[in-house]
Structures are given as structure tokens and as C-alpha cells.
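Batch manifest, entry 17 of 40.
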Amino acid sequence: MPASDHNGSQFALLGRRRYAPLFVTQALGAFNDNVYKNALVILVGFGIVGLSPAQIDFYVNLAAGLFILPFFLFSASAGQIAEKYDKARLIRFTKLFEIAVMLFAAAGFALQSLPFLLAVLFLMGTQSALFGPVKYSILPQHLRDEELVGGNAMIEAATFLAILLGTMAGGWLIARHGSTWVSATIVAIAVAGYLAARAIPPAPPAAPGLRINWNPYTETRDNLRFLRGNRVVLLSVLGISWFWFYGAMFLSQLPNYSKQYLGGDESVVTLLLTIFSLGVGIGSLLCERLSGRKVEIGLVPLGSIGLTIFGIDLFFAAPGPAAVAGQSALQFLSSAANHRVAWDLLLTGVFGGFYIVPLYALIQLRTEASHRSRVIAGNNILNALFMVIAALLAIVYLKLGLTIPQLLLTTALMNAAVAVFIYTLAPEFLMRLLVWLLINTLYRIRKTGLEHIPDEGPAIVVANHVSYVDALIIGGNVRRPIRFVMYHKIFRIPVLSFIFRTARAIPIAPAREDEALMHQAFDEIAAALQAGEVIGIFPEGQLTRDGAIGEFRSGIEKIVARTPAPVVPMALRGLWGSFFSRNNFLARMRLPSRFWSRVELVAEAPVAPEQVSAADLEQRVRALRGDWA
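Output type: C-alpha cells
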């Protein structure tokens, strides 16, 4: 790829053939699904003569079930097919299938045949089930690791906005222009989606020799067993499924909530759906900036905190029935009392974006390419299952006498309980949140040369040691996980100790203090390098007392001699005098005099193992640091 391809924000991807056609294809597909679904719902509710209210409720719920059912039946097979064949070709096939389905839909509208139209909805669900595993598993093949967050963010933002616009367009077309215009629109959008898909670059199969198991039950079982072998991926899948549970619970209640508790008409429902969708879009697009173009899973617990807080506040914003009825969207907004509801929904969407985008990127990054599509297929099955459970629980809770605000409050409290459970099982998420909050509250960090750290295989990063949080600053800004070797007394500092242990740091002591711990540390370093991990070392062996770089000790030479690996010199600039440096934190124990300090990380090309010496690395780090303290 050209050098310029490395620069720019996530929006630069829209100018790349490796991303833009997929983005357009996905957005058009989501738009088209919702044009049809909402047109069908309106047609059932208002257009088909002779249906009683009970029949209308039955068919609306049947429609929802028919769209979700194919995810249970076909996702497992779709995941295998996506591993076995070129994903770009599969996307083109699914878009051709969409054209055929939309032609059937046009025939159903012309015949005004409800069974026909419901059968089309099942076929649409089938098309979505086939497309889902390909859509997410193709991204890591066309995007670099640092682009995954931005790429996923724009997919999520576009999907929610397409759902919103498609829902609005479907209702408007069927109400104002009739089924003929709906038919023309959905066929035209399907054709446009296929034309966009033709521009997607090839994506070779990950497992061309795979034998497909067509039994959905046994294949789903095997996928879930595979997930159990990777705890972080499994919990990410469960986290995404929970988000769809939470979203389904909230969004399915919006129509009755708007009518009964906000006193609004149909336009208020549309307004609230718009506000929530915009929130998800904003939150998704902010992820890349907040995460520094890497998969920052610290945003996930931040997102879950926001989902809980604003979900709870929504209960207090409108806990009882409205005193008015039939308000338009403008009338709703003209009342200052309603602004709290609008802000709660907007911020619920924003924090939902923070929550969902890193989880999708984490699955793509932490799953082996040969299983990625099947893992995503398993994720889709669980997503569908959680949405069905949400619908059933909503029915049960409302039957038990809960009001809609009480149901939303219960869901928000359940979200808090689920979050505590997940982060207890995988403390890495909470650890990354603490690191993210720390480095983004106290420091402004500029990074240069971090691309010199190899994307794969063993490597050692050596840096000067200025503060108690050097490891957090470096680890929080490098894409690959780094296992730092650190003085055992720093390793045991309260709060920081939780972070260091969760990040699998390696405590070490001088031989005069604890010879056994020293030997254990060297053994653990060797094992980590043999496993292809990145090790971080501060060769001075202690924090600087005056801001100057001390002599690099020979331990780095022993490590490389035992387990050869490239060594990346790195310099920390600007940390001396900040709160966690020795001259401030220990000597004065005062409040930090410098918030949001400007700090720089500068790295240069790796030094080959056979050329490593402590003295040479010291000179390289001194040159990188320059006159900075």
C-alpha cells in the first residue's frame, strides 16, 4: 500500500477500494431490509382489510420471528461457507440473492398476499444470515489492525442510520405512494447494492479445504465449544449479544412509551428513534479518536457504565403516565421537561457505540483467521437468541404488572449486574479502562515511530524509566500487548498492582534482594519470547532521580543471548516533573501541578539480536530523547 494510505482518519477509508464498496453494500442492505419490513408492518396494520386487532398483533410478531428464524437455521452453515470460499464472491452472490428476494417481494405486494409477503421476510432473514459472517470477517483481510476500530465504527454508525432511514422511508412510501413505489425502491436498492459489491477486492478463503457440516445444531455446538477456548473472544461475543438484548428491550418499548408516558404521537416515536440512532453513530465514530486508532477495550466498561447510568435516569425522567396526549415532535421538543428524555436516549446511544465497536474489533483481532467467520456466525446466533429472550422477558415482566419505565429501569440494573460479572471474569477490560482514564486525564501523548514494533513474532522494547506509570503509557499506546519487566516493589503498588497483574507484567528483583525471583523472571521472559510475545524492559533498573538517563545494565544482553529477538529502542519525553515522576510523587506528595502534560513516545527501527549491547541501546535511547527530560 502507498505510504499515504497509513495516514488520515477513519473517513479516509471511504476513499479506499478495499473498504468503500463494502461500506456502501452494507449500508444499502440495511436500508433495504428496513424499507421492506416497515412497509409490511404498515400494510398489515392499516392496508389489509379484514384483519382484527388480535390478528394484526399476531402477524406483526410472526413477521419479527420469521426474520430472526434463519439466523438460527443458517448462520452455522454460512460461517463455514465464508471460511471455504472467497468472501468478495460470496458477498456478490448474497446481493444477487437479495435482488431475487426483492423481485418476489414486488410480486407479493402486487398480489396483496400476506403469506407471500411473510415468506419473503423469511428469505430476507436468510440473506442477512448468509451475509453477516462475511461482512465482519472480511474486514481484517482488507484493513490493517490500526484501521479495524475506524472501519467497524463506520459500519456500525451507517447500519443504525440506514435502519432509521429505511424505517422512515418504508412507512412514508407505503402510506403516501402505495406498494408500487415500495416495490420499485427495494428492487432498485438491491441492484445498487450488487453493483457496489462488484467493486469489493478479492478476499481469499481462510480454510479452502474445510468440509462443511450442514447440521446447524452440531455446528453451532462446535462453534460455541471453540469459543470456550478463548475467554476474551467468548466474553466479547456475550457482550455483543447482551447489547442487542439491551437495545431490543429499549427500542421495542419506544412506541408505547412515547404514547403513554410522553404523550406523543407517531412523530415522537420517529424522533426518539432518530436521537438514539444518531447517538450510536456519534459514539461509534468517536471510538477511533478516543482509542488512538487501536482496539481499546477500555472503552467497553466505559460504555457499559454509560448504558447503566442513562438507562436508570430515563426511568426518573418520565416515571408516570403523561398528562397530555397526541403531541407532535415539535410540541414534544418545545417542553423543557422532555429534553432530559432526549438527552438520556442520545447518551445511551453514544455509550452504546463506545461499548459495541471495540468488541467487534476485538473478535476480529483475537480470533484465528481460519475460524473467524464461524465465530462471527456463532455471535450472530447468540445475538438473535438474546433478542428473542428480550422479547419474551418483556412480555413476562409486563404481564406481571411492571410499567414500561419500570421495565427499562430493570434492564438498566441488569446491565450493571452483567457488566460486573463479565469484568470479574475478564479483568483485562477493567484494567484497560483504568489505563485509558489515567493516560488520557493526565497526559497528552504524541507517538512517533511505533510502527517499528513488529506486528507479529517476539520483540523487546527498551525505554528510559522516568515515572511510575511508564509501563502504562507505553502499553496503552502500542497496539500489541506488552509484558513489562518491572521492579517488584513498583509491581506491588496498590491499584497499579491490579493493572500490572492483569497485563501479566513480570516482577523482578536484584539478586541481592531475591535471587529466586530474579531467576524466575528470566525464565518467564524467555518463555514469553519463545511464545512470540512482546517484552518491555527499562534497562536502567530503577527510576531516574534527576530526570537524566542512567546506565543501561547488562540484563538485556543476557535476555537476547538466551532468546534472540529484535530490540526496539524507545524514548519517553516530557514525563519528568509530572505527577507520577519521582520528584513529584514521592518527594512532595502534592496534588499534580501539571494536568494533561505533553508527553512523547519516540521509537526507531529494531536492532538485530546479534548487534544488541546495553551501551549501544543506551546511546540510541539518549539520542531519541534529545534535550527532553
